[in-house]
Structure formats: structure tokens, C-alpha cells
Automatic annotation (TrEMBL):
This is F-box and leucine rich repeat protein 12. Residues 32-78 form the F-box domain. InterPro entries: F-box-like_dom_sf, F-box_dom, LRR_dom_sf. One of its GO terms (cellular component) is cytoplasm. The keyword DNA-binding does not apply. Gene3D superfamilies: Ribonuclease Inhibitor (3.80.10.10).
Length: 297
């Protein structure tokens, strides 16, 4: 255990200082060395190597450690994916006692593949997260069931990156206002469809979209969402600058998506990568230039 190793290091340091103190006593100088001798910055650096679960346990050692464990420097990046026993109750305890304005990045594992089941991310918890952690910029969810969420507007407004892996999505991702996500990563999300892709047009700041193993997205769906000039100006995913599509082991499907979905050009798209096994097929801003040339003719 990491905690055991770190504790051994602290004990070894204390023993070394105690030995030096004994030598000082032989010289007529009295010194007393224990854990209280260490500055708080050093103790916080040592505690930063612990996992979240071990941090919570370390806070039970004494009052001083309890105060140190709550230092927000230890809670900037929180990864709970390795803690298999996390429940909604534990999430509430962490949010009320430890998480705060220092949180920047949060990784969570849901109960989608768990035998326990039940609600993991509730609407009330996400709202409390928005209030308690106003600087949270990245949220990564693994195997989370989001079908019970009424709308994406309950996500923290401070989010800039949202990464979903193996998650179940709600019926709609439409969000007229209030969401500031700039990068969306979907990895192995079978429930993501063309309808969800169209809903992303309402995400006002979305500039980077990465779709990996989203089998239900079709070439027609891509074509319908491509940024194009309409009667009221630019329509579709007009703010998108980067698009990545990846389907593992389906070479022919990839080429079809690239040719049918993006061959007509995508206004404003600076870089477009379609992932193919063993190599990358790159389509960049030349597509938009070709589209403009054809339209001029």
C-alpha cells in the first residue's frame, strides 16, 4: 500500500531526527523530534501521493492531519475510478467535507456495470457540485448512467472538457443556454445517435468533438450537422474547429463516413481526423475551400 510506504518514510525521517537529537543531548543541547517537527508544506507534499480513499483514512489520524487532508491543494485532481466501492452516499460525504474551490478535474466511475445498480449521479448532487466547486473545468465519467438527468443544463457551468466513456445518455443533449463545454469526448457510447449529434448544435462554445466507437452515428447525420450557410446565417455545428471520428476495426465504414459525411466540406472546420486502424486519414480545411470554390462557380 502507498499509505504504508509513505508512513514508513515518515517514521524513518523521525527516527533519523531523533538520533540526531540524542547526539545533540550528548553535547548538552535538548531537542524533541516527531511528526510535529515537519512543516505543513512537506506533509501536504507527502499526502499528495495518496489516493482519495487513503487521504480520507489519513484524516482520521489526528486533528492536525484532518485539517491538512482538507487542504485544497490535495483536491485539484480527483480520480475515483479506482475506488470500486464508491456510492452516492460517499460522493455526498466527499463533496461536503473535502471538495471545494480547488477542484479542477474530476474522474468518476458509475454503477452501469455494477451489480448494485441504483442512482449514482443525481440532479441535486450535480447542482451542489456546481456551487461548491466553481473552478471545475474537466469532468470524466466512466460507465455512468445519465438517462435520469433531465437536461444538460445541470452540468457545472465552469466545465470546459466533458469526457464520457461507456456511458448511457439521456434522450436529448439539447441545451439552449448555460453550458460552456468546449471539448466533448465520447468513447464507446453506443447510445449516441444522429439526434444527439444534432442536439450539439445548441452547445454554443463546442469547438472540439471526438467520437470514438459511436456506431450509431451515420454519414447522413454528419452531413446534416455540417456547418453550412442557411437563411438565418450559419447553421449546424458552426463553431466546430476540430472533429475526430474513430471506429475500431471498421475500415470501410470509416471511408464511407469520410466521403459521404464530410466530402461536401464543413465551413470553419480547421482539422478533421478520421481514425483508421494502423493509419490516419486526414481531411483538413481544404474541404471548406473546395466547398467555397464550388459554390462560387
Amino acid at each position: 500500500m502507498i499509505f504504508t510506504r509513505l508512513w514508513s518514510i515518515l517514521i524513518a525521517l523521525c527516527w533519523a531526527m531523533r538520533c540526531s537529537a540524542t547526539n545533540a543531548e550528548d553535547r548538552g543541547t535538548s531537542q524533541f523530534c516527531n511528526l510535529d517537527y515537519f512543516p505543513e508544506n512537506i506533509l501536504i507534499d507527502v499526502l499528495s501521493y495518496l489516493s482519495v480513499r487513503e487521504l480520507v483514512r489519513a484524516g482520521r489520524v489526528c486533528k492536525r492531519w484532518k485539517r491538512l487532508v482538507k487542504d485544497q491543494r490535495l483536491w485539484r485532481t480527483v480520480d475515483l475510478t479506482a475506488w470500486k466501492g464508491v456510492t452516492s452516499r460517499i460522493l455526498w460525504v466527499l463533496l461536503r467535507q473535502y471538495l471545494g474551490c480547488g477542484l479542477r478535474c474530476l474522474h468518476l466511475r458509475g454503477l452501469l456495470l455494477s451489480a448494485r445498480g441504483g442512482t449514482f449521479l443525481s440532479e441535486s448532487w450535480l447542482k451542489a457540485l456546481s456551487t461548491k466547486c466553481p473552478r471545475l473545468s474537466k469532468l470524466c465519467l466512466l460507465h455512468a448512467d445519465l438517462r435520469s438527468l433531465p437536461t444538460c443544463q445541470i452540468l457545472p457551468r465552469s466545465l470546459r472538457v466533458l469526457e464520457l466513456r461507456g456511458c448511457e445518455l439521456p434522450r436529448s443533449l439539447a441545451c439552449p443556454s448555460g453550458i460552456c463545454v468546449e471539448r466533448l469526448v465520447l468513447n464507446n457510447v453506443p447510445s449516441f445517435t444522429d439526434q444527439h449529434l444534432q442536439n450539439l448544435a445548441s452547445w454554443e462554445r463546442l469547438s472540439r468533438l471526438e467520437l470514438r466507437d459511436t456506431f450509431r452515428v451515420t454519414a447522413n447525420g454528419l452531413r446534416s450537422c455540417a456547418a453550412k450557410e442557411g437563411l438565418s446565417g450559419l447553421e449546424g455545428l458552426s463553431r466546430l474547429k476540430y472533429l475526430e471520428i474513430g471506429i475500431t476495426g471498421r475500415h470501410g465504414y470509416q471511408l464511407q463516413m469520410a466521403s459521404l459525411g464530410l466530402g461536401a466540406g464543413w465551413l470553419g472546420l480547421e482539422e478533421n481526423l478520421t481514425l483508421v486502424p494502423f493509419f490516419l486519414l486526414s481531411l483538413n480545411s481544404h474541404l471548406a475551400q473546395i466547398y467555397k470554390t464550388k459554390k462560387a462557380k
